[in-house]
Write a structure and sequence with these properties.
Layout lengths: L1 H54 L18 E4 L2 E4 H15 L8 E6 L4 E6 L8 E3 L1
Antiparallel strand pairs: 1-2, 3-4, 4-5
Length: 134
């Protein structure tokens, strides 16, 4: 009985090997066709992505600049309210009226509330003439 089983098993194994040998070329053809189809689909997808990338340029967002806050400096004394910007402009105008030929590279302003005056220094040189009354 062992011989019949062994013979039957060998016969079945032989038949299976024969079936695999016969099916192998067909399986190779199917594999090759599937591989070609997958490669073609991948190439088309790559081309579509490249085309889409060319059509739609990447939008670069500009870095948002933080706007400088509006600032002002005021001096309040003896019931007066003076804007530093206005005092500086008046001192610059006073200097330009009296010294038309001098180029201003540096301008410093000192407000002295006790004297109700502003003194200025031009290009690092002080003078008794550099004074305006507030």
């Amino acid at each position: 009985m062992a011989t019949k089983r062994t013979t039957r098993a060998a016969s079945t194994a032989s038949a299976a090997k024969k079936a695999v040998r016969e099916a192998a070329p067909a399986a190779k053809e199917v594999l090759a066709a599937t591989t070609a189809t997958v490669k073609k689909a991948a190439e088309e997808a790559v081309e579509e992505v490249k085309a889409a990338a060319k059509k739609t340029p990447v939008k670069k967002t500009a870095a948002k600049k933080v706007a400088e806050p509006k600032t002002s400096v005021h001096f309040q004394y003896n019931g007066k309210d003076l804007a530093a910007k206005e005092v500086l402009a008046a001192a610059m105008e006073h200097f330009k009226e009296n010294h038309k030929d001098t180029a201003v590279r540096e301008f410093e302003l000192y407000i002295v509330a006790e004297e109700n005056a502003a003194y200025y220094v031009v290009n690092g040189e002080p003078s008794d003439d550099y004074k305006i009354l507030l």
